[in-house]
Specification:
heterodimer, A: 637 residues, mainly alpha, 25 helices, disordered N terminus, disordered C terminus, B: alpha+beta, Immunoglobulin-like, 2 domains, flat
Amino acid sequence: MYSQIVKFVLRCTLVSAVICLCASTSPFAEEAKVEKKIIKDLHYGEVLFHFFQEDYFTSITHLLAAQQLNRVANHRPDDELLLGGLNLSYGMHKEAGRIFARLLDESADDAVKNRAYYYLAKISYQRGYLPQAAQYIENIKGAVHADIFTEVKLLKSQIYLDTGQPQKAVAILDDWKAPKNSRAYALHNLGIAHIRNGDVDDGIAKLKKVSRLKVRNQSQLTLRDKTNLVAGLTMIQNKDPEKAQNYLENVRLSGLYSDISLLTMGWAYSEQGDYQKALTPWLELRNRRLTTTPVQEGLLAIAYGYSQLGLNGRAVKSYEDAVNLYQVETTNLDESISAIQDGKFIAALVKKTQDEPLLGWFWSLKSIPDVPEMRYLAELMADHQFHEAIKNFRDLIFLQNNLRDWLDNIAVYDTMLDTRKTRYKKNAPTAEVAIKESLIKRFNRKYEELNNQIMAAEQNDDVLAFATHEEKLQLKRIERLENKLDKLADTDLQKDELEELNKRLKILKGRVYWAAFQQYPDRKWQARKSLVQVETELNRLLSVKESIGNVKHVAKIGFAGFEYRIAELRERIEKALPRLEVAYQKQTQLLERLAVRELLNRRLVMQSYHAQARLALAQAYDRATTGVVTEDEEEQE
Amino acid sequence: MPGKIIVFIITLLLVNGIYAATQPDPGLDDDFKSLDGRVQELKKEVLEINRDLYILEEELLFPSNTQIAVFVSVDVGEFFDLDSVQVKLDDKIVANYLYTKREVEALHRGGVQQLYLGNIASGEHELVAIFVGKGPSGRDYRRGANVKVEKGLGAKYLELKITDRTIKKQPDFVIKEWQ
């Protein structure tokens, strides 16, 4: 009979160990850690920045926007694979499934298809659709990309184990040297596969290897505990309780598996007939929280141990303690069920979501207050359905707050848009006046005149056309003096003096011409350069005029476009909020129902324990009254 | 004999205690699935609203003809442990950011942070970035980098890159202009 219990526990533990293993790693998160992406679009990197911080909501929002604005074109089809993965991480299996199925339809690339099949297998596996998961994983063909190679191997082995094909799991994992961060998981699965396949020695050998691996983090410590527990249970099943002890002793006293390990340790000693030693771990269990099954069962085990030692008095006392404690626990459960049904549980959860950050699934269970409505939260969180329901509950609160915040912002956008419209109405006429058509025409005419003048001067080699103002003045003065000298030709002045004056004027005139001639090429080039500048400025003026015209046109459309979009989004938000509220109310009711169902189940078990303890107590009283072992004899021992 | 009884009891209790769950609320599992599907659809709807609002906000507040965005990335980053970044645009401080451990890890894994999103007029501008953190051997480290940018019609994207100069075993700070 006893071996059947152990066998049963072993089978269930093996199953749950694999299930827990799947839940303990996130292959998608690991994938991103393995390979650092080469960023070809900044906005793709920006999405990864939020994703690496597990802010899935922001990551998805930004990726959807980047796709719509064509900002991640250089990352096709990785952007779609990332989007699918993000949806999966955010609990949106349906949408993730749609994205991966679409990728399968659209892509001809084996690498992309393999990734899509992997994620589809993962989704199906997580949702418990094992045949579908097996089908998807079998579709992965050819060389699997290094990014997902490890995850595919692990998932494949898990699916084979869960579909009762341990020999295939062995074939997948045997001789595979998994990367460091996955080696413990791979060896653990391989050990279980061997044991399920009937190769206990090989299985234990693999599990032993897990214990020898260097532990890097808390989850690996927990896995090592689990491995030792599985090895211990396997040894008990194989009627080698002495060896079982060695494995069970390696399980930490404060870990997730410490309670079940202490209970099993007691059974390992008791299997060897050493009830005295068996009592040590069982008595340790008595000091722990009575909410876990091993602690509850430990109470009966203690009484059983004493009775096996023939210490009937202590056995009776232990049964009496068990009856009392089961009664207290039943009362606690009743209080909790009543508090949950009164709505106190949801109120406490809402307070917790306000006190602690919204995104991220896990609260610190250490900070749970010891009030009836929250007493069993840690135990409830261990239930998959309840856990998923809590996530949805928190998401719904977040989504409602998010939309309410946007509703406030949208009012600000409306005001902003009104301000812009007012400013536009005020400034647009001024801008139009500043660049009138007549002004541009006048500038154009002036430019043409100058251009013609320069061209004429160039054709005639007219050096004086580019003379300076001073040079022109000097030439005029020389001309005036020449005229005066001409008039003096008929006077009494001596011819020699006049000739001398004419000669000097000619020299002066020649100097001015010479200077203008010397400067002619430079001055011509400067004139051309200035003309080009004038042309550039004129073109700029034309472009500004055109731009103002465009702005005027676009502004009219833009204002109307923004107005329409703001109104449409406000309507969408206002329609979504009541539906979110309805879903939230239903979710709170569902959470209460899940909690009550779990606690009612626990209550039934507790009642069963209570009844069995009372029956055993009655039998122990019978033995005591028939005097099988007296109290005096017990004292002597 | 009593031992056997106890073992039998414990068998029952183990079975009851761990695995035999009665169903006090038989429709609960179906309700769970149905509501989970509904919540998924609502999440999708809210995400799409957020996408459209995000785009609207950007187009309204930071139109592409005046938009400038500054991003931060880390390539390897073995010789520099980032604490903060300050960004000055035309000698005016526009961003001052202090990093959390989680953000630094995200940068090291290949994430790119959008540090600043703003508006500037077309023409030439100067951007100065000052990086503060721990350099080689854990010493305090403060370095600047600057770039002159010409703002045209389209949005201007600048990436502040923290890289390693392996030979000199020193960090390097580069500003890359994206087209």
